Amino acid sequence: MTLPPGDRIAARLAERTDGPVPDVVVEPDAEQLARAAAAALVARLTAAQAVHGTASVVLTGGGVGTAVLRHVAGLAEEPAPGQDLDWTAVDVWWGDERFVPADDDERNEKGAREALLDRVGVPAERVHAMPAADAGFATPEDAAEWYAGQLAAAAEDGPLPRFDVLLLGMGPEGHVASVFPRSPAASDERPVVAVRDCPKPPPTRVSLGFPAITSAEEVWLLVSGEGKAEAVAAALGGADPLDLPAAGARGRRATRWLLDAAAASGLPGAED
Questions:
Q1: What is the pTM of this model?
Q2: Label partner for 60 (CA 20 to 30 A): which of 7, 176, 177, 258?
């Protein structure tokens, strides 16, 4: 029997490490990746609601991340049997945000609202956006501190609420959220951090730190394109998270790498 590409890769990775091996899913291209991730996300959040009565998701921006949200909106219009997700009982958080005015097209929140949130009726009190630069916060540090307070206020026990699924993109140098290689955020132990002098514009941001990212029940990394294949292979090969932050993005119960064939091309077993 021929194994799917992701299973072949996971099996080869397991031969090279003594630690837990993440789930690896490989789709032919970015469009099919976005469709598959959307269907899986709806199924996972529906299952969380069945257990807890509510579900929570941490969103990411970027091309694939936004495409996933558009497909999720489409599934909400025509839900599959047994996957009629109640969007009035979904809490929405963000992994990072650009510290720019609220109407700036660079805002991840703006893209998420247009792609999904304005189409599915998530109540305003369940949409937990990171502050914009014109929201009354003098500095990104103030905004980060406020967002950490919002997380703590929503938590049942401890400083962080339950995140059923935390979505992340990844840059070609291995950054996740706005945690860049060898940046102060990569070693910061606070759940939310301000990011200045970011190597990718815009330079000022607010981001979840590793304590918040790794608190999630499941972390899903959505990655497409050959230009990211080297970083994908390094992250799954055990790179130091300080050098390649994606390597440190792990969920409490599961870590899933959702890749297109180009992004997976550098992994062992990809060409078998």
A1: 0.95
A2: 7
